[in-house]
Amino acid sequence: MQHPISLVISESSQVGGARRLAAGLAAALDFGETRQGQLALVVTEIGNNLVRHASYGELFIRAVEADGDIGLEIIAVDKGPGIANLGQCMRDGYSTAGTAGNGLGAIARLSQHFEVYSLPGGGTVLLSQVWAKSECAPPDAAMVVGVVARPKPGQEVCGDSWAAEHLSSRSLYFLADGLGHGPDAAIASQEAVRAFRKNKSRRPKEILEAVHAALVRTRGVAAAVAEIHFDRQEVCFAGVGNIAATIVDPVNARSLVSYNGIVGHQVRKIQEFTYSWSRDALLVLHSDGLSSRWQVEHYSGLIVRHPALIAGVLYRDFQRDNDDATVLVARNSHDMGRP
Asked: What are the extents of the domains in the chain?
């Protein structure tokens, strides 16, 4: 399961639903009973924190794989009051809501990877990973990816689809936004992902050409392919339509060039562009369900954090309610800071 499941959490009954959903996923993925129990506690504590402190928040749950192990990743986002003193809140017994005060500390202990990004008055984004076998987050490929995605409010399925492929000397990232919303948009974007995977050994321009040919009987998509070459330290990019792509490093942010058109229908031109890449850079792709006005440098210390945490912050602060929304962030796995 690559696409995150998105859940609104605004009342206690929704916490129970999230716990049952996560437990069902863990059982289907062959988590042992102990890890299933740990995951249930993590989701319960995260959900209760959202209800108590933020009144409204969202959970994103997706399966992740690394080094032969499988895990479940939980991202929680809210626009609540934020955490003034994270260290203090991590101590068992400390509470601002009249509870036992074991929430964040328990989540951290039960997670194989745990991070929080919070600013007073600016809300909180929390990341927890619970792995089926590993005692800590297993080593990933050269790159690590974070994704947040949800359908347009009122729709059951997301019309955006994405994929990542890690090869020996390069990594490829693909994002497709089906025209419109709902099931037909999802069918088009999922078909685009299938065509991408079939042609992953080719160059980005050739991949998009193959996707274009494969989608002639669908409503079409906006799509983009980014290929990071590790040995050459460069990104090769091709895009058609309104998928936004940006390379962010500690010095500046560079927007990558796409052409107008609809993949599968009307494409005037597909062209590759090459950009320099550094080990400490981020690659950010997102559909137009996210405003392009974001700037990572406005968030103190965020640029060195886990891509899932970065994706959660950007989604929370710049998502639009009138469209499907997906944001994908990728970075070198060896250059992540910690809280």
From this structure: 5-131, 143-332
